[in-house]
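Let us practice reading a record.
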Amino acid sequence: MLFLSFWLTSSLSVWMTLIRRKTMRYDAVIFDLDGTLLDTLGDLAASVNHALVSRGYDPRTLDEVRSFVGNGVRNLNARALPGGFENPDYDAVFAAFQEHYASHCRDTTCPYPHIMELVHALKAQGVKLAIVSNKSDPEVKKLNDEFFEGQFLSAIGERPDVQRKPAPDSLLQTMEILGCEPVRSVYVGDSEVDVMTARNAGIDCIAVTWGFRSLEQLRESGASVFIDSPMELLEKI
C-alpha cells in the first residue's frame, strides 16, 4: 500500500510537470547577469572609484555608477572618467580597475532576493537556463560557478572575438548551445541594452524593475513586459 501511494504521488508529479511544460511559452530562459541575477553595483563602484582615485580623480557616487553600467566595463570606466576614452589616463585607469575588480568582484556581490528560488523552480520545470552578459567572460564564469553551481547550462561574457551586446551574437550562440529556437526562448534583463539585444536576436524580452534602470527608462527603451520580483517570471513563461 505504501509503495502504491508513493507510485501514485510520483506519477502525478510527472504528469503535472508534463502538462505544465505543454502550456509554457518558452523552453529556454536566458538571463543578463549584473542587475538581473546579481546585485554587483557595490563592487563595481568600489573598483571604479579605486581606479579613479589612484590617478587623482574624484570618486563617483553609487547612482552615477549605476547610470554608467550596461555596455561592458570599458565603457563603464570611460563614462566614469572625465574625457572618457580621449583622456590620456584612460588606459591606466582601466588597468587599475581590472586589477582591483579581479580581486574584489565578490566582496558584496550577491543574488537578488528570491533569485535562487526562481532558478530552482525553473530547473524543476525543465526549463533550460543560460547567462549572457557584457561583463568580461572570466568574471561571468567565476561568478556563475560561485553563486549558481552548475544551474546554468551556459554562461557567456564579453570576449575579444565576439561583438558585445546589444549585438545579438552571444545570444544567438547561446540558443544554439541550448538547442532552442528563438520563438521558444526569452531574454530577461534590466537595461535598455538588454531590450535591444533581444530585439536584435529576434526573441522576446522580459524586463526586471529591481536592477540598474528605472521603469520609465525601460519603457523608453521599448520594453513592454515587466516583472517586479523574480518569482513573477514563472507567470510570464
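A brief commentary: Residues 2-19 have pLDDT under 50 and may be disordered.
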